[in-house]
Specification:
The chain is built from 10 helices and 8 strands. With 258 residues, it is α/β, with parallel strands linked by helices. The structure holds 2-phosphoglycolic acid.
């Protein structure tokens, strides 16, 4: 068995008010208390406006959950209207951040160079980046998936010291599988997650780097996805919005009797 601890991350996207975030966190905590087979690492990524209440609720409950942002600016501060910096996240007790989610790349013109700047800023400030990569349907159909993934991984890590590779987290999220109900077949998802690790290993040590799969992960497909050996967990969108379905994914990610 791999020494990499499974990680299940919920990306709430632009959902949940402060009250909803608080009640979700309490309900999820109650459910996880009943899980006897051991927990994976659990990460909640609320929208900016619910970060504080989620972090505070987790802290008060002593819940075994980490809290992360869904994005950030790479600069520490400055005239960047509407942006949030790593310094501000750190100040709130946030230690994780999603970087380069395909919705950021698609709707907000986030580039590989921008992703690289954010990864470096996260590392400077001691935030763990969850670096998202993935191909679109047309890229998959034209057979460039592997070269594109390798290029996204290398670009994200340009000028990043290979010594930090073990602390990084990647998420392989094929764009065509996000929010579509069309999950990537487990063997193929596992293969691409392995490719990400191999790409790292060409420049350093990728053996400890966790690679998640994301894209229509549900309670009924998590166990199969986790079976391949190269998928260390999931980045979950839609199914992370209800405590019950997110809990079932958490429970399904760890082997029974672990
Ligand atoms: P989904 O989203 O689980 O709703 O497909 C995944 C993601 O965007 O991270």
């Amino acid at each position: 068995m791999s020494a990499r601890k499974p990680l299940i991350a919920g990306n709430w996207k632009m959902f949940k008010t402060t009250g909803e975030a608080e009640s979700f966190t309490k309900a999820l905590f109650e459910k996880t208390q009943t899980l006897k087979s051991g927990l994976p690492e659990i990460l909640l990524c609320p929208p900016y406006t619910a970060l504080a209440v989620t972090e505070e609720t987790v802290r008060k409950l002593k819940a075994p959950f980490a809290v992360g942002a869904q994005n950030m600016e790479s600069k520490d501060n400055g005239a960047y209207t509407g942006e949030i910096s790593p310094v501000m996240l750190k100040d709130m007790g946030i230690r994780w951040v999603l970087i380069g989610h395909s919705e950021r790349r698609q709707y907000y013109n986030e580039t590989d160079a921008g992703v690289n700047a954010k990864v470096k800023a996260a590392l400077v400030h001691g935030l763990t980046p969850v670096i998202c990569v993935g191909e679109s349907l047309s890229e998959r159909e034209s057979g460039v998936t592997d070269s594109l993934i390798q290029q996204q991984v290398k670009a994200a890590l340009k000028d990043v010291d290979a010594l930090v590779y073990p602390t990084l987290v990647f998420a392989y999220e094929p764009v065509w599988a996000i929010g579509t109900g069309k999950v990537c077949e487990a063997p193929e998802a596992n293969r691409v997650c392995g490719l990400i690790r191999k790409t790292l290993s060409a420049q350093g040590d990728g053996s400890q780097t966790r690679v998640l799969y994301g894209g229509s992960v549900k309670p009924d497909n998590i166990a199969e996805l986790m079976r391949g050996g190269d998928i260390d967990g999931a980045l979950v969108g839609g199914a992370s919005l209800e405590p019950e379905s997110f809990y079932k994914i958490i429970a399904g990610s760890v082997p029974v009797n672990a």
